[in-house]
Every structure is written in structure tokens, then in C-alpha cells.
Amino acid sequence: MPKPPGTVAVVEDDAGLRAAMERVLRSAGFAASTFVSAEDYLEAGPRPSPGCLVLDVRLPGLSGPELYRRLRRDGAAPPIIFVTAHDTVSVREEVRALDPVAFLKKPFEGDDLVRAVGEALSSGGTKQSKSE
Q: 11-22 pLDDT, tens per residue?
């Protein structure tokens, strides 16, 4: 199945995981940009909005959900995939309220990330499935 074109922005503070996600996405044919924090993403300057945003829930400074709420408020919120190692009831509730395309618990398989990104890009943000 051909992958829909689109750029994926990954915001993840763990350098190893950030690099691994970028490698997996690029090997699947997606253009990927990575950022170490929400602030790094916001300060990157004017750029085309990504087709999909992969956000860690817990980041230093502004959290992933806080960044997404800001982008949504500003009318610049692409389809979202949240990732977290902190799978608690409160995290699930906060994330579900933002209606992501997917919610991936760390550690996750590269195929799960590629599938979620493909869904996000092809759906234009319409939620189709979640990894629980």
C-alpha cells in the first residue's frame, strides 16, 4: 500500500528514541523533522505545517498536550499521535480529550508508529484507530 505524502514532525526529548523514530519514518518513505522540546518546535520559525505531529506527552517545559492545545488555539494543529512511557489514567484522559489519531505506549514497535502516521496522513486527522 503506497504511503501518502507528508511531513511528520516528531517532538521527543529522548535523543535515542527521537533518532530511532526518525530512522523508522524515513525508511518507510516519510519526510521527518525532529525537535527536542515543544519550545524547540515553536522556535523553529515559519515552515509549512506538518501533515502529522508525533508528540511525547511528557517533555521538559511545555508538555505535548500543552503544545497541541496551543497549536489548536492558533489554528495550526495537524493530526496528532501521542507517545508516552507514563501510561496512567490521568494521562489517558488528558490525551483522549485531545482526540488523537493514535496513542502509543513506549516501548512501541516501529510498525505501529508507521501505521499510525499513515492513518494520520491519509485521514487528515480523522481518528480511525488507537493503540491501547
A: 999 999 999 999
